[in-house]
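Write out the 3D structure for:
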Amino acid sequence: MPGRSVLIAGATGLVGQEILGGLLADPGVLAVHSLGRRSPAIRHPKLTPHVVDFTALPALPPVDEVYLALGTTIKAAGSQAAFRAVDHDANLAVARAALAAGARRAGLVSAMGADARSKVFYNRVKGELEDALAQMAFEGLVIARPSLLIGNREALGQATRRGEEWGFALGKALGFLIPADYKPIEASAVAGALLSEVPVATGRKVLLSGAMRAAVPNAGVRSGTT
Protein backbone atom coordinates (compact mmCIF):
# COMPACT_ATOMS: atom_id res chain seq x y z
CA MET A 1 0.00 0.00 0.00
CA PRO A 2 2.31 2.82 -1.22
CA GLY A 3 1.72 6.37 -0.10
CA ARG A 4 -0.05 5.55 3.16
CA SER A 5 -0.85 8.28 5.66
CA VAL A 6 -0.70 7.05 9.24
CA LEU A 7 -1.76 8.29 12.66
CA ILE A 8 -0.12 7.27 15.93
CA ALA A 9 -1.14 8.12 19.48
CA GLY A 10 1.43 7.47 22.19
CA ALA A 11 4.57 7.90 20.08
CA THR A 12 6.66 8.91 23.10
CA GLY A 13 6.03 5.64 24.96
CA LEU A 14 8.04 2.44 25.06
CA VAL A 15 6.22 0.65 22.23
CA GLY A 16 4.98 3.83 20.56
CA GLN A 17 8.45 5.18 19.87
CA GLU A 18 9.36 1.87 18.21
CA ILE A 19 6.22 2.05 16.05
CA LEU A 20 7.05 5.64 15.12
CA GLY A 21 10.58 4.72 14.11
CA GLY A 22 9.31 1.89 11.95
CA LEU A 23 6.75 4.09 10.23
CA LEU A 24 9.31 6.78 9.45
CA ALA A 25 11.66 4.17 7.97
CA ASP A 26 8.93 2.58 5.83
CA PRO A 27 9.15 3.79 2.20
CA GLY A 28 5.47 2.92 1.80
CA VAL A 29 4.46 5.52 4.36
CA LEU A 30 4.06 9.01 2.95
CA ALA A 31 3.06 10.90 6.10
CA VAL A 32 2.93 10.24 9.84
CA HIS A 33 0.76 12.27 12.22
CA SER A 34 1.46 11.87 15.93
CA LEU A 35 -1.02 12.80 18.64
CA GLY A 36 0.15 13.46 22.17
CA ARG A 37 0.30 15.85 25.07
CA ARG A 38 3.85 16.58 23.92
CA SER A 39 5.71 16.20 20.66
CA PRO A 40 8.16 13.35 20.02
CA ALA A 41 11.80 14.36 20.33
CA ILE A 42 12.53 13.13 16.81
CA ARG A 43 12.22 15.41 13.79
CA HIS A 44 11.58 13.95 10.34
CA PRO A 45 10.21 15.25 7.01
CA LYS A 46 7.37 12.72 7.15
CA LEU A 47 6.36 13.54 10.71
CA THR A 48 3.75 16.11 11.72
CA PRO A 49 3.30 16.26 15.50
CA HIS A 50 -0.03 17.39 16.97
CA VAL A 51 -0.13 18.43 20.64
CA VAL A 52 -3.71 17.75 21.70
CA ASP A 53 -6.19 17.45 24.53
CA PHE A 54 -7.57 13.93 24.21
CA THR A 55 -10.88 14.99 25.71
CA ALA A 56 -11.43 17.49 22.87
CA LEU A 57 -9.67 16.24 19.75
CA PRO A 58 -9.70 18.45 16.66
CA ALA A 59 -10.65 17.18 13.23
CA LEU A 60 -7.77 15.06 11.95
CA PRO A 61 -6.14 15.01 8.50
CA PRO A 62 -7.06 12.11 6.21
CA VAL A 63 -5.32 8.88 7.25
CA ASP A 64 -5.30 5.24 6.15
CA GLU A 65 -4.48 3.55 9.47
CA VAL A 66 -4.08 4.31 13.15
CA TYR A 67 -1.83 2.92 15.89
CA LEU A 68 -3.07 3.23 19.47
CA ALA A 69 -0.22 3.08 21.97
CA LEU A 70 -1.39 5.35 24.78
CA GLY A 71 -0.91 3.85 28.21
CA THR A 72 0.01 4.50 31.81
CA THR A 73 -0.13 2.74 35.18
CA ILE A 74 -2.51 3.28 38.07
CA LYS A 75 0.47 4.36 40.19
CA ALA A 76 1.62 6.94 37.64
CA ALA A 77 -1.92 8.14 36.89
CA GLY A 78 -2.78 8.50 40.57
CA SER A 79 -6.16 6.77 40.56
CA GLN A 80 -8.20 4.16 38.73
CA ALA A 81 -10.30 6.90 37.13
CA ALA A 82 -7.21 8.69 35.82
CA PHE A 83 -5.81 5.42 34.52
CA ARG A 84 -9.04 4.67 32.67
CA ALA A 85 -9.07 8.16 31.18
CA VAL A 86 -5.80 7.39 29.41
CA ASP A 87 -5.85 3.68 28.65
CA HIS A 88 -9.50 3.50 27.66
CA ASP A 89 -11.02 6.90 26.99
CA ALA A 90 -8.12 8.59 25.18
CA ASN A 91 -7.40 5.58 22.95
CA LEU A 92 -11.07 5.25 22.09
CA ALA A 93 -11.35 8.96 21.30
CA VAL A 94 -8.41 8.71 18.92
CA ALA A 95 -9.90 5.64 17.25
CA ARG A 96 -13.18 7.45 16.66
CA ALA A 97 -11.43 10.51 15.29
CA ALA A 98 -9.24 8.36 13.04
CA LEU A 99 -12.23 6.48 11.70
CA ALA A 100 -13.91 9.80 10.90
CA ALA A 101 -10.71 10.83 9.09
CA GLY A 102 -10.90 7.76 6.85
CA ALA A 103 -8.77 5.17 8.68
CA ARG A 104 -9.60 1.65 7.53
CA ARG A 105 -7.28 -0.27 9.83
CA ALA A 106 -6.16 0.02 13.44
CA GLY A 107 -3.47 -1.47 15.65
CA LEU A 108 -3.74 -1.50 19.45
CA VAL A 109 -1.11 -2.07 22.12
CA SER A 110 -3.17 -3.89 24.76
CA ALA A 111 -1.97 -6.29 27.46
CA MET A 112 -1.85 -9.99 28.25
CA GLY A 113 -4.96 -10.94 30.19
CA ALA A 114 -7.16 -8.23 28.72
CA ASP A 115 -10.77 -9.26 29.38
CA ALA A 116 -13.83 -7.05 29.83
CA ARG A 117 -15.18 -9.59 32.36
CA SER A 118 -12.01 -9.76 34.44
CA LYS A 119 -12.18 -9.02 38.17
CA VAL A 120 -8.78 -7.33 37.82
CA PHE A 121 -9.35 -3.64 37.10
CA TYR A 122 -6.35 -3.24 34.79
CA ASN A 123 -7.28 -6.25 32.66
CA ARG A 124 -10.94 -5.23 32.61
CA VAL A 125 -10.18 -1.75 31.27
CA LYS A 126 -7.95 -3.19 28.57
CA GLY A 127 -10.63 -5.69 27.60
CA GLU A 128 -13.36 -3.07 27.49
CA LEU A 129 -11.27 -1.01 25.08
CA GLU A 130 -10.66 -4.03 22.86
CA ASP A 131 -14.39 -4.77 22.76
CA ALA A 132 -15.25 -1.14 21.96
CA LEU A 133 -12.79 -1.08 19.07
CA ALA A 134 -14.12 -4.38 17.74
CA GLN A 135 -17.56 -2.78 17.42
CA MET A 136 -16.22 0.02 15.24
CA ALA A 137 -16.25 -0.05 11.45
CA PHE A 138 -12.56 -0.72 10.86
CA GLU A 139 -11.80 -3.07 7.98
CA GLY A 140 -9.01 -4.57 10.05
CA LEU A 141 -8.13 -4.47 13.75
CA VAL A 142 -4.89 -5.95 15.14
CA ILE A 143 -4.59 -6.26 18.91
CA ALA A 144 -1.18 -6.89 20.47
CA ARG A 145 -1.33 -8.45 23.94
CA PRO A 146 2.27 -8.41 25.15
CA SER A 147 3.48 -9.97 28.38
CA LEU A 148 6.01 -7.98 30.43
CA LEU A 149 7.78 -5.49 28.19
CA ILE A 150 11.53 -5.13 27.80
CA GLY A 151 12.90 -1.72 26.91
CA ASN A 152 14.78 1.30 28.20
CA ARG A 153 12.16 3.37 29.98
CA GLU A 154 14.76 5.61 31.61
CA ALA A 155 15.88 6.81 28.17
CA LEU A 156 12.31 7.97 27.59
CA GLY A 157 12.12 9.78 30.91
CA GLN A 158 9.80 7.14 32.36
CA ALA A 159 10.05 5.48 35.73
CA THR A 160 11.21 1.89 35.62
CA ARG A 161 8.56 -0.71 36.48
CA ARG A 162 9.68 -3.19 39.10
CA GLY A 163 7.36 -5.90 37.80
CA GLU A 164 9.00 -5.69 34.39
CA GLU A 165 12.48 -5.83 35.94
CA TRP A 166 11.59 -8.90 37.98
CA GLY A 167 9.94 -10.54 34.99
CA PHE A 168 13.01 -9.92 32.84
CA ALA A 169 15.33 -11.38 35.48
CA LEU A 170 13.08 -14.39 35.90
CA GLY A 171 12.87 -14.86 32.16
CA LYS A 172 16.65 -14.91 31.84
CA ALA A 173 17.02 -17.43 34.66
CA LEU A 174 14.10 -19.71 33.91
CA GLY A 175 13.18 -18.84 30.35
CA PHE A 176 13.26 -22.45 29.21
CA LEU A 177 10.43 -23.24 31.65
CA ILE A 178 8.18 -20.32 30.75
CA PRO A 179 5.62 -20.70 27.92
CA ALA A 180 6.35 -18.45 24.94
CA ASP A 181 3.32 -16.24 25.47
CA TYR A 182 4.35 -15.48 29.07
CA LYS A 183 8.01 -14.67 28.52
CA PRO A 184 9.02 -10.99 28.65
CA ILE A 185 9.05 -9.44 25.20
CA GLU A 186 10.99 -6.60 23.63
CA ALA A 187 8.99 -3.46 22.85
CA SER A 188 10.49 -3.52 19.36
CA ALA A 189 9.02 -6.98 18.75
CA VAL A 190 5.55 -5.74 19.64
CA ALA A 191 5.98 -2.75 17.35
CA GLY A 192 7.40 -4.85 14.54
CA ALA A 193 4.51 -7.30 14.64
CA LEU A 194 1.95 -4.51 14.49
CA LEU A 195 3.78 -2.75 11.67
CA SER A 196 3.74 -6.00 9.71
CA GLU A 197 0.13 -6.96 10.36
CA VAL A 198 -1.87 -3.73 10.42
CA PRO A 199 -1.40 -2.55 6.81
CA VAL A 200 -2.88 -5.79 5.44
CA ALA A 201 -5.34 -6.62 8.23
CA THR A 202 -8.86 -7.82 7.63
CA GLY A 203 -11.20 -8.64 10.49
CA ARG A 204 -9.92 -8.86 14.07
CA LYS A 205 -6.62 -10.48 14.94
CA VAL A 206 -5.05 -10.93 18.38
CA LEU A 207 -1.27 -11.31 18.69
CA LEU A 208 0.27 -12.89 21.78
CA SER A 209 3.92 -12.57 22.78
CA GLY A 210 5.05 -15.89 21.32
CA ALA A 211 3.77 -15.05 17.86
CA MET A 212 5.10 -11.50 18.01
CA ARG A 213 8.56 -12.63 19.05
CA ALA A 214 8.66 -15.25 16.30
CA ALA A 215 7.64 -12.65 13.72
CA VAL A 216 10.47 -10.29 14.73
CA PRO A 217 13.30 -12.59 15.91
CA ASN A 218 15.99 -9.88 16.04
CA ALA A 219 13.91 -7.30 17.90
CA GLY A 220 16.14 -7.32 20.97
CA VAL A 221 19.15 -6.38 18.87
CA ARG A 222 17.31 -3.51 17.22
CA SER A 223 16.01 -2.07 20.47
CA GLY A 224 19.31 -2.29 22.26
CA THR A 225 18.05 -4.77 24.83
CA THR A 226 19.11 -8.29 25.64
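Residues 4-223 form a domain with the Rossmann fold fold (CATH 3.40.50.720).
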